[in-house]
Amino acid sequence: MARNKDAESTCENWELTKDTLLLEEQEKRKAPKGAVLSLLTSSPQRAVVLLYVLLALGFVLFMALTIMNIRKVSAVWEALDQARLQGEKSHATAWHNLSEVQHALDKQLSGELQAIHSQLLNVSQEVENMQWKMAQCRAECGKELSDRIRVLEGRDALEPALQQLEELKQEQSRTSALLSAVLEEARNLSEILCTRCPAGWQQFAKTCYFFSTDMKPWMEAKASCAELGGQLAIVNTEQENKFVANHIMETRVFWLGLSDMHKEGDWQWLDGRSLSLEFWKSGEPNNVGHQGEDCATVSSSGLWNDATCSSAEAWVCERSC
């Protein structure tokens, strides 16, 4: 009986142990499922946090790139401003130097022209002296010749007297030819050199030019030139056009004596002559605008443009020396 009791207690203990092991195994099986669930529930939060971190890093990188670009653009603008200022300074310096050179040339030419004018006056005075001496010589020679003829008439040796008379006539002819040549040279020199341009006028070849400082419509500019004893400039050669352009400031244009008022497209100078040479700007004349463009201007580049005659512009006159 005792052995049966021990066997039953042993069986009961074994069953309890077995149940305990089964419970522990079930708990162990449940534990991984809970860990997975906690991991699954915590992963979206970590992803959101990671996303915010990446967005923050992207924003910081974007701001850094933006600041760098702004600094580069600022540096480029500063360089452009410095280049523009330097260009304006160089331009002003060039105009100042050009004005000084032109002033020096005008002064030098004025001195040379005054010297030539003095020489011409001396030559004219010498020519007048020679003319007076020739007239006096003719009178004295004529008187001497008459006296010799009268003396020779009273002599029988008439042939030698006639020979002397012929020699005197030849000498007189040579003197007259020499005087005529001197007078012709003086006249040619006076025609070549222009020494009578009024004050404020510029000389080119045998013509004087006046460049206005005020601005007027074309008809008023034409009248002003007439009051000054000239007319609006007429360009006959390429050299004359370059001379006019060289006396024009870069930002201005000047009226010429050229228009097509009488007939559109038929451009004529004030003296009635049609164009024999022309220096129109590309695309000109184009006669744009409601009022049309019937009067010509010239710029510092030497190119012409048609403009409205009622516009106020500077003007250039010309007159003979």
UniProtKB/TrEMBL annotation:
Signal peptide: none
Cited SUPFAM superfamilies: C-type lectin-like
Keywords associated with the record: Disulfide bond, Lectin, Membrane, Transmembrane, Transmembrane helix
Keyword Repeat set for record: no
Pfam family, one: Lectin_C
Keyword Glycoprotein: no
InterPro entries: C-type_lectin-like, C-type_lectin-like/link_sf, C-type_lectin/snaclec_domain, C-type_lectin_CS, CD209-like_CTLD, CTDL_fold
Origin superkingdom: Eukaryota
Annotated TM spans: 47-67
Domain C-type lectin: 204-318
A molecular-function term among this protein's GO annotations: carbohydrate binding
Classification via PANTHER family: MANNOSE, PHOSPHOLIPASE, LECTIN RECEPTOR RELATED
Protein name per Swiss-Prot or TrEMBL: CL17A protein
Native source organism of the sequence: Anseranas semipalmata (Magpie goose)
Gene that this sequence comes from: Clec17a_1
